[in-house]
Amino acid sequence: MKTMALLDQEYVLTHEQIQFYDSNRYIKLKHVFDPETISLFNGIITKKVMELSKEKQPMEQRDTYGKAFMQLFNLWQEDELIKTLVFSKRLAQIASALMQVEGVRLYHDQALFKEAGGGITPWHADQYYWPLASDKTITAWIPLQKTPLSMGPLEFSAGSHKIMDGRELSISDESEQIIQNRLKVTDFKHVISPFDVGEISFHSGWVFHRAGANTTRNMRKVMTIIYMDKYMKLKQPTNDGQQNDWETWCPGTKIGRIIDSPLNPVLF
């Protein structure tokens, strides 16, 4: 099948793209997948998310985090076709090239579905939650449909991985306000633009990012895959989120050792 073959075909990055990522710690790449591939996984992932999702409170009764998105983790363990996307050599090769590492492991995958009328995803840095010893981490953010500004695409503060302030904040109203105020007094460019079908972004664990509300009547459907350097070591957790991630996504790994649990295979 053409779609299955495309998942493992090389995506050639230019030197300029690799340097752009190195400076800004995010990049958006067009035509990573064709519309047929996106349509296929839109149907498969949506079906699995709806099957596994628990009934949620009405939107007006949820807190900011609850309004931001429905999320499900490690769908690669739930469906063999979803596993082919998560284990895609094409995506893992891009992740490895952008981070300029020898290879990458899976940290975990995560479906992020922002419901119609769903609220903002506050400013945050993902690696707050990760007990990982270095910054060699990267997330592929894969929209499963064309994503206009009205749907709440991912926004970035380009180069903000250099800021230490705000790294201690989980996703919350507080992180939105404090990080936003901090970014206002910097020269880092706020990047917000729609995503075409087949366009995918990659961002590092410490770059600050957010997403707007979904003001449309349709679900904003996104699949994400988090990669780490294949030699990544586990560090001592410094908050409850990192402790939970150690137990959930790196089971059996010892502090100071390479994270090579069965949930963290080398993908490239």
UniProtKB/TrEMBL annotation:
SUPFAM superfamilies: Clavaminate synthase-like. Pfam families: PhyH. It comes from the Bacteria. Its cofactor is Fe(2+). Keywords: Dioxygenase, Oxidoreductase. GO terms for molecular function: dioxygenase activity. InterPro entries: Phytyl_CoA_dOase-like. PANTHER family: ECTOINE DIOXYGENASE, PHYTANOYL-COA DIOXYGENASE DOMAIN CONTAINING 1. This is Phytanoyl-CoA dioxygenase family protein. It comes from Maribacter confluentis.
